[in-house]
Amino acid sequence: MRLFLSGLLLWLCGCSSKHVEKNVAEIPQPDSVAVSHIDVEKILNDYALRASEFAKSDSLFYPVGRYMEEDTSRIIVIGKFIDKEKIYAVDISSQMNATVSFYQLNDKKWQKIGSHKTPNDIFQVAFKDYDGDGKNEIITQGHYNINGNFWNEFYHFSPGNNTIIYAGSFFAGAEEYVIGNNGKTLKVEYSGSCHGEETRTFFEWCNGQLIRRKQIVLSEIGEDCIAKTIEYYENPTSDKDTLVRRFKKRFRGKQYDFWDNFFLNN
Predict the structure, then answer these.
(1) Strand order in 99-106's β-sheet?
(2) Where are the domains of the chain?
(3) pLDDT single digits (tens) 70-113
């Protein structure tokens, strides 16, 4: 079943300490308070003291409102967004070159359980179970480009060692991927302009990582977009995100059946 992330990505328009009944938060728009003035530790500790106010709630809390300046905006989200049991927090340091940090609240004290530095831009964050383990992944998403595509980065909670780790990423649009096999696989399609590459990628979850198993790339040749090349890649490993090209072919006219049926056969 195709997932429409656009339905999931609800936008945040709020002010400081706003209590919101949604499960997506948007990087705030510019305001007059510099991001350097935000004391993340104090914000988290203030919410720890008030934990009883939302311990029985499924709502998300956004203690940072409309702070600041374009690529230096910040977002903090607090709530039971992984398992509806424990309280967690995610802190995204900026829109560009952000550090994404994760915390868990235990006995009114915050424990840092993960951190990742990303080179990709971040516009908003969402929470949903993508691997079928009953616990939500955290997904940060970038700004749309002219073709409606953006970076999707996944973070996975590992109960075995109580950490949140970076799981993988891809560049695609809001309606371009499908969960399959009871959450064990993800099928992702990327398309841009007529003269750009199109890709179809078959991902599989493996030990909390989103691993590319197979990929097909369709390229247009010439201005008429009739001549094409098709490249096929496979992952030769069981647990590494590694692709090796198996063949490259050129053809004209009707699209190659291998491209058309790629997702049907995987």
Answers:
(1) 18-20, 60-62, 75-79, 87-92, 99-106, 109-117
(2) 1-175, 176-266
(3) 445 788 888 899 988 899 999 998 888 889 999 999 988 999 99
